[in-house]
Design a protein that fits this description.
CATH superfamily of the largest domain: Spore Coat Polysaccharide Biosynthesis Protein SpsA, Chain A
CATH class of the largest domain: Alpha Beta
Distance between the termini: 71 Å
Mean pLDDT: 94
Number of strands: 30
CATH topology of the largest domain: Spore Coat Polysaccharide Biosynthesis Protein SpsA, Chain A
Number of helices: 7
Bound molecules: guanosine-5'-diphosphate-alpha-D-mannose, magnesium ion
Oligomer: single chain
Low-confidence stretches: none
Strand content: 25-35%
Largest sheet: 7 strands, mixed
Number of domains: 2
Length: 364
């Protein structure tokens, strides 16, 4: 008998759990009204990019969104998933259970291997290859590692030459850094290991569950990813991801074609005599007046107004914000429906929450 690939995939139906319940504190005030999983990247809610990746993994037939903070806002966007081409289910914790507690709570009734994703990482990883490796090694847990320059904000992971994990140390101190590979926040787990996770107290996958696998000498392996990877959870990284997409380090529309071109929606109104420096992004309904300059890596959200001779440079501006004449906005993130007055200067790492007002001639 010949076994078709359709038959093989139908034998291995898997669920993916996206951990998307954190409060996004490092992105405040942006996340006060917009939970981190739906923070816009080029005006598109972040989780769409993760769903794009999961959709192309034939083994995965359902995504479970594990939520806690402002769950309704997220459910409204993704619904049952039909528009994203995936079946989506929501599990809302009564109180935050930590990363391991959330996995147990969402994966309680599951018996087959589960893919788990931190809800704030963007990557072009070959997930099917990670799943294959997990099966080949009959692992209890497989985690994806990626090399970074400074592991201190992540989970440091040491492996041996066969890819077995020897040590997992969350948020290492400088003197504890022994290698450059960190936990990329992508796992394949076997649900028969979940009984060690307590049901009613918060428990961390990084600080408790992974170390327990090492202590018990269970098969716990790593797959190293050297392609694109970023955690979007800080303002610096949030700006960085826009730059990476515009420079095609991570390929996604509308920047997956010709390099360095400004993207202007057909539904935007950009006057003649506006200076556009590619790559930049101007979305539907935005209005940019004559003499304004939209510099590289800038994002002008839907229905924004940029008045005469204003300058926007390497800044991300969410929808409905108005920038007055001759104002300057550089290397900053502006939330929805802000107002920057005329001749005001907003520079270098300013993060404005929704509906902020900067009065005329102010400097921040
Ligand atoms: N449902 C639920 N419940 N989700 C949670 C909870 C919870 O109690 N706590 C955190 N999360 C979600 C967050 O929304 C986020 O998507 C993910 O779990 C990871 O939490 P972060 O707060 O972003 O953690 P981190 O970035 O400091 O560190 C984690 O990610 C790094 C890679 O980006 C760790 O897993 C590190 O080991 C890892 O290197
Ligand atoms: Mg994170």
């Amino acid at each position: 008998m010949t076994v078709s690939s359709a038959m093989i995939t139908s034998l291995f139906r898997m669920k993916a759990i996206l951990l998307a319940g954190g409060k996004g504190t490092r992105l405040r005030p942006l996340t006060l009204h917009t939970p981190k999983p739906i923070v816009p990247i080029l005006e598109r809610p972040f989780l769409h990019y993760q769903l794009d990746l999961l959709k192309h993994v034939p083994e995965i037939d359902e995504v479970i969104l594990s939520l806690n903070y402002q769950p309704r806002r997220i459910e409204e966007i993704f619904g049952d998933g039909s528009e994203s081409g995936m079946s989506i289910r929501y599990v809302v914790e009564p109180a935050p259970l930590g990363t391991a507690g959330a996995v147990r709570y969402a994966g309680e009734s599951l018996h087959d291997s589960i893919v788990v994703f931190n809800g704030d990482v963007l990557t072009n990883i070959d997930l099917a290859a990670v799943i294959a490796r997990h099966r080949e090694r009959r692992a209890k847990a497989t985690i994806v590692l990626t090399p970074v320059e400074n592991p201190s904000a992540y989970g440091l992971v040491e492996t041996d030459e066969d890819g077995n994990i020897r040590r997992f140390l969350e948020k290492p101190k400088p003197e504890e850094i022994t290698c450059d590979t960190i936990n990329a926040g992508i796992y394949v787990l076997e649900p028969d290991t979940f009984d060690r996770i307590p049901k009613d107290t918060p428990w961390s996958i990084e600080r408790s569950f992974f170390p327990s696998l090492i202590e018990r000498r269970e098969t716990f392996i790593a797959v190293i990813h050297r392609g694109y990877w970023i955690d979007i959870g800080t303002p610096e990284k949030y700006l960085q991801v826009h730059r990476d997409i515009m420079e095609q380090r991570y390929r996604t529309p509308p920047f997956d074609g010709e390099a360095n071109r400004p993207y202007v929606s057909r539904k935007a109104k950009v006057d003649e005599g506006v200076m556009l420096e590619g790559p930049c992004f101007i979305d539907d309904g935005a209005v940019v007046k004559a003499g304004a300059r939209i510099g590289r890596y800038s994002v002008i959200g839907r229905q924004c107004h940029v008045e005469e001779r204003a300058v926007i440079d390497q800044a991300v501006v969410w929808s409905g914000t108005r920038i007055g004449a001759e104002a300057e906005v550089r290397r900053s993130v502006l939330g929805r429906q802000c107002h920057v007055g005329r001749n005001a200067v907003v520079d270098a790492g300013v993060i404005l929450g929704d509906k902020s007002t900067i009065t005329d001639y102010s400097r921040v």
